[in-house]
Amino acid sequence: MEFLEMTSKRRPTMVHAQWAALLSVLLSVSACAPPREVLTVTMRPETIPSSEGDMPAPVDETAARYPETRPERFDDGRMWTFEAPPVDWFEEAYGFRPDVSWLERARLGALRFGDICSASLVSHRGLVMTNHHCARDFVARMSREGERLLDDGYLAMDEDQERRVSGLSVRQLIEIEDVSQEVNRAARDVPGWGPQAEAREKRIEAIERRMKARLSPSDSTREFKVVELVPGVRYSLYTYRVYHDVRLVWVPELAIGMFGGETDNFEWPRHTLDAAFFRIWEKGEPLRTANHFMFDPSGAEEDEPVFVVGNPGSTERLVTVSQLEYQRDVQLPEDLYVLRNRIALLGRFVSENRAKADSFDVRNNLMGANNQLKALEGQLAALEVGWVLSRTQAWEDSIRFALGRSDSLSGRYGRPFRDIQLIQQSKELSAPRARAFTQFLNPSISSHILMRAMYGYVYALSARRGAPPETLKEIMDEAMTIADWPRELEQQVISARLQDFQRALGENNPTVRRLLGDMTPQAMADSVALLLFSGD
């Protein structure tokens, strides 16, 4: 799950009652919880509709819908967590068997940079290397009077010139503990898959609270996160050491750090200097660590095994054929439509208002949106013409075969792929309404005013339902990170969102008519902006 780090330049604008009423109308037609880009609100799941009426009968799940292929080892990619690296296969394939000490050094040398990026310790004095695109958001906010660090780059000639980056923390995974038994024990006597998942989630939250309670209230140097490795099966408690004093050492100018632009993005080879250096400080001096990666000027040799260590996004390895089909036919086309529309808006704003766009960090939003667009375009292409669905079908068939050979397993798990398929069909029926909220909480392209209003709605709803103080604080902290956007841009993006409602539901839909009245989407957006920015 990916999150974008955004730091507000001032406190979020309070939502006026008239605008809050407008938001409530928008929420009333949403068929699903907010999308997962930033925040997920867990509601009681709706009953899966039957196959009668408008619901089409499920396709025979034993029928081959894609070219037949045989499952192969590592079909789902050669990426592993530190809990279970296939050391036997490493030795078989590469003649190299890493021991416990090697794996620990590799884990401690890797860092999580901010919320969404990987980084590495590359010296004994806390020097950190990451990608240029991971640094842009922070660098853009660090420019002083007369500086344009994003465009011109920065080099600290000595340690005194290294600039502390506000709002940036890096995390080092220092301990892993298997908590599978404790998490699964919470669901042992609970009937039904939904209640079992809820019981596990509550136990996960309890474990994290228990670990946090062992620290002093002022200790922010440790974080605890229970990671779901295999849903309902394997869970690990990750303990992170958190460093908050991170300083910029060097970043190249944008023309070099993003050389080739979107054309070269996600392509190979790339002729760009996509790198930046920072330094971790602790107690007023550079961090000293024995666990770091060394530079080898000679580079890798032919046939030498190379391992990449980091914090990648979700692999979605357990997504089924019906889920992939839903992504291909419904979700991804709509995501791409909205992304292209908003990218065009942001692009025009940046080209026409360069100085203001930079002061509100809109250019980084635009680059992030273009990055997402190209990634999703690649995913859709793979589902349309690639072998992903054939391999996934083969994986499903192997599981069906195993279930069919065991009465105990089939009695316990039933027909999971059919159940998942029914859920996708239910989602497809509600897609026209849900389409109006596509990418609603994507901070790169969505109205930041609407996002804050959504957080306010979730905060109030959670408080009424008795959420604990720490949960409410997390919601508030997330809301406070949403940066301001210029009035002119907000007007355009809010108008585009209202047009999404017209497109999804129809201009004559009662909710749309109640929402807009006799006003056009642009006129409504202009009136909202006038109301909320009247003090500017």
Write a brief structural summary.
By secondary structure, the protein is an alpha+beta fold. 47% of the residues lie in helices and 11% in strands. The chain has 20 helices and eleven strands.
Molecular structure report:
47% of the residues lie in helices and 11% in strands. With 536 residues, it is an alpha+beta fold. It folds into two domains: 17-39 and 315-532, no CATH class; 96-286, no CATH class. Strands 1, 2, 3, 4, 5, 6, 7, 8, 9, 10 and 11 form an eleven-stranded antiparallel beta sheet that branches. Helix 10 packs antiparallel against helix 18 and helix 16 packs antiparallel against helix 17. Residues 1-53 have low confidence and may be disordered.
Structural class: alpha+beta
Number of structural domains: 2
Number of strands: 11
The value of Rg in angstroms is 25 Å
Strand content: 5-15%
Q: What separation lies between the terminal Cα atoms?
A: 36 Å
Annotation field: number of helices: 20
Amount of helix: 40-55%
Topology at a glance:
Elements: H1 17-28, H2 87-94, H3 100-109, E1 110-113, E2 117-121, E3 127-130, H4 132-140, H5 149-152, E4 154-155, E5 163-164, E6 170-178, H6 180-185, H7 193-213, E7 222-230, E8 234-243, E9 246-251, H8 254-257, H9 261-264, E10 276-282, E11 285-286, H10 321-352, H11 354-359, H12 362-385, H13 388-404, H14 407-413, H15 416-434, H16 448-464, H17 469-480, H18 487-505, H19 510-516, H20 521-532
